[in-house]
Amino acid sequence: MSVLVYVEQIEGKFKKSVFEAVSYAKAIADKLGTTLTAISIGNVPESELSALGKYGASSVLNVAAEELKNFVNQAYASVIAEAAAKESADVVVLSNSFSGKGLSPRIAVKLKAGLVDGAVDLPDLEGGKFAVKKSAFSGKAFAVTEITAAKKVIALSPNAFGVKESPVEAVISSFSPAIKPTDLTAIVKEIVRATNKVSLPDAEIVVSAGRGLKGPENWGMIEELADLLGAATACSKPVSYADWRPHAEHVGQTGITISPNLYIAIGISGAIQHLAGVSSSKVIVVINKDPEAPFFKVADYGIVGDAFDVVPKLIEALKAHKA
Amino acid sequence: MKILVCISNVPDTTTKITFTNDNTQFNTSGVQYIVNPYDEIALSKAIELCEGGKGTVTVVNVGESSTDPTIRKALAIGADDAVRINAAPRDAYFTAYQIAEYAKSTDFDMILCGRESIDYNGAQVPAMIGEFLDIPSISIIKNLSYDGTTATIDREIEGGKEIISVTGKFVASCSEGTAEAKIPNMRGIMSARTKPLQVVESVAVEVVSSISSFETPAPRGTVKLIPAAEPESLISLLHEEAKVI
Ligand SMILES: Cc1cc2nc3c(=O)[nH]c(=O)nc-3n(C[C@H](O)[C@H](O)[C@H](O)COP(=O)(O)OP(=O)(O)OC[C@H]3O[C@@H](n4cnc5c(N)ncnc54)[C@H](O)[C@@H]3O)c2cc1C
Ligand SMILES: Nc1ncnc2c1ncn2[C@@H]1O[C@H](COP(=O)(O)O)[C@@H](O)[C@H]1O
Q: Which residues does chain A have with pLDDT short of 70?
């Protein structure tokens, strides 16, 4: 028995959420008294692969097949399932990223495994069970899911577990799985990536603004504040619906659910559907001119004031703090 | 062209979430049910693709008879007919298996789903259907165009998008932006009553998981208010007290 972690690469590099998944998988392997193997698919330099040892992966399977250069969930699921069989892995861990969400269900079906997506804590193994807590109802609750199948697949929520070091020497070996042409019928034509921006789902700090900002022309100060904090930007639903901001920034019940360390909400009223997507943020700051805005009820810190007055001052204060 | 749209029946977005029986069951008392908002987007996209007699839209739901009003709502929005697979949806594995089995018995060009259901937020069912049917599945799409054989799809990725081309049958799960959600009109509501709703029995499948209990997040403390004229105090609190910057 062993634990297998899939390490998603983006342009040959691993992101923090991958190291979180490795740390989490290592903690499960320790609980089960077994070892951790990582599987990487695509073109990743050796130095990057060996860095996985720092978080506890003692073995790394490297799949560098040219056909698998781009992520195609159907083919990647076959490869990971084959690796799980080869390693006799009962537990497969991955990050619940956009790609992870398209991948974990397919792996689970291949392995006839129980799947927990959006896991927020380590499995509880007491009394021989395998129960994993995940967020549900768009962050309004948690559901403890018991996996009763012999095989388990867990997709870890970004920012839920943190990165934990547990250094071992990572032995890298190349792995050449069988590739079925029928697994590659979906073809990636183009990848459009805004490289200079912090990505929202796994950002540690998020600066978000709503209809209180009046119009898209006023987002300059939001972006400046976000840049100073190394934060991603987000918005409320009406803002993305009015095309003031791209849909990808829309957080909430019908947008993205996030759980950053710090969420700063500016000119957002705090409707229940908005809160659903952000309420698991560790610290919430609200800036709103209406002291009765519902958002203040769930905030840790608040400023009652006009955003057009407060935000520029906040930017100045932050610059002074950094200097 | 025939499009299957999978719809799930979920609590209205304003629902206060509580549990009963020692936190083992979702408290359904007084809860209003709706078509999962992302599924409305999927349905609207399907209707758009079939406009002008180009095809038909069948909605599929795994649920007990209590979900019929939600199915009728989908018919009112514009689906041509509906199929309900008669079973309480136990988990995504079970649900996807049922839908895949039904899909095998009928002819279709594509299956559209929502990106996730807003109750259990699994985002599992669509890709599981794809795997059970051994056809491509594209999760969390933002755009879809179809020329009758090949679909061109934008998929969301961290900080960007991927453009994917797929020929032949596929499953896609739709998010915001894929289509403008359609609202039922009076004629739609009237005709929904007489559109066909077929009920089929479910098939047996192994049990892989179950929810053992629920928890609600710990309530937050009261807000600490900082005077608008002193934003530097906020910075120091975030730095020294909350330690997040
Ligand atoms: C099915 C459904 C799903 C939904 N899903 C989502 C979702 O996923 N995400 C989401 O966000 N919403 C969602 N909504 C919409 C939600 O109900 C609210 O309408 C929305 O969140 C309000 O956005 P807002 O706070 O930006 O705007 P408003 O409600 O208009 O609030 C603007 C706020 O800005 C403040 N303000 C105004 N001027 C200033 C100023 N100069 N300085 C400081 N503050 C100022 C006001 O006091 C007010 O509190 C959903 C609704 C439904 C029905
Ligand atoms: N009981 C169900 N019946 C039909 N379709 C469903 C059901 N549950 C989920 N789906 C579909 O699968 C999508 C993702 O759901 P989930 O995997 O539960 O988050 C939903 O948006 C629906 O399109």
A: 195-196
**pLDDT tens profile A69-126:** 999 999 999 999 999 999 999 999 999 999 999 999 999 999 999 999 999 999 999 9
What does A70-115 look like in DSSP terms, one character per residue?
S--HHHHHHHHHHHHHHTTEEEEEEE-SHHHHHHHHHHHHHHT-EE
Could you report the per-residue pLDDT of A35-66, keeping only the tens digit for each?
999 999 999 999 999 999 999 999 999 999 99
Q: A79, A80, A101, A197: best mutation site toward chain B, by most B Cβ within 10 Å?
A: A101
Question: Which tokens in the block code for residue B106?
Answer: 């009928």
Residues B121-136 pLDDT 10s? 889 999 999 999 999 9
- Verify whether ligand 2 is closer than 6 Å to residue B202 (CB atom): no
Q: Which of B125, B140, B208 to mutate to test the pocket of ligand 2 (most atoms within 8 A of CB)?
A: B125
What domains appear along chain A, each with residue ranges and CATH number?
Answer: 2-184 (3.40.50.620), 205-322 (3.40.50.1220)
- Let me know if residue B203 belongs to a domain: yes
ipTM of the complex: 0.95
Q: Which of A266, A265, A235 is nearest to A252 (CA)?
A: A235
| Domain with B158 in it | 2-217
> Average of pLDDT values for B154-173?
95
Mutation test of the interface with chain B: which of A125, A254, A281, A322, choosing the one with the most B Cβ atoms within 10 A?
A254
∠ Cα B92 B97 B102 (to 5°): 130
Is B236 a domain residue? no
Ligand 1 atom with least separation from CA of A252: 8
In a domain, B237, yes or no: no
Q: CB distance A110–B131 less than 8 Å?
A: yes
Residue A302's H or E segment, with its range, is: strand A301-304
